[in-house]
UniProtKB/TrEMBL annotation:
It comes from Actinomyces slackii. The gene is secE. This is Protein translocase subunit SecE. The keyword Membrane applies. The chain crosses the membrane at residues 43-68. One of its GO terms (cellular component) is plasma membrane. Essential subunit of the Sec protein translocation channel SecYEG. Clamps together the 2 halves of SecY. May contact the channel plug during translocation. NCBIfam families: secE_bact. InterPro entries: SecE_bac, SecE_sf, Translocase_SecE/Sec61-g. It is found in: Cell membrane; Membrane. GO terms for molecular function: protein transmembrane transporter activity. It is a single-pass membrane protein. Keywords: Cell membrane, Membrane, Protein transport, Translocation, Transmembrane, Transmembrane helix, Transport. Belongs to the SecE/SEC61-gamma family. Component of the Sec protein translocase complex. Heterotrimer consisting of SecY, SecE and SecG subunits. The heterotrimers can form oligomers, although 1 heterotrimer is thought to be able to translocate proteins. Interacts with the ribosome. Interacts with SecDF, and other proteins may be involved. Interacts with SecA.
Length: 77
């Protein structure tokens, strides 16, 4: 066990239930401040990339479905 982990343990044990919740919320807020949020232009670009990728997957799946349907109909009829 590292020294920093053992040093933090007694302080954490002294915190009550609500103190630990408050510490967690403060830590979440501190981490959210570190986030690099995308600009509006970047967000729009990401949105379009996702939409076109989903459309491409839909078309690919539809083509495969049609091909397998034709193959099954050809084999069994």
């Amino acid at each position: 066990m590292s020294e920093s982990a053992s040093a933090a343990s007694p302080a954490d044990k002294k915190r009550g239930f609500f103190g630990r919740i408050a510490l967690f919320i403060r830590q979440v807020i501190d981490e959210l401040r570190k986030v690099v949020w995308p600009t509006g232009n970047e967000l729009w670009t990401y949105f379009l990339v996702v939409v076109f990728f989903i459309l491409a997957i839909m078309v690919f799946t539809g083509v495969l479905d049609y091909a397998f349907n034709r193959a099954v109909m050809w084999i069994f009829t």
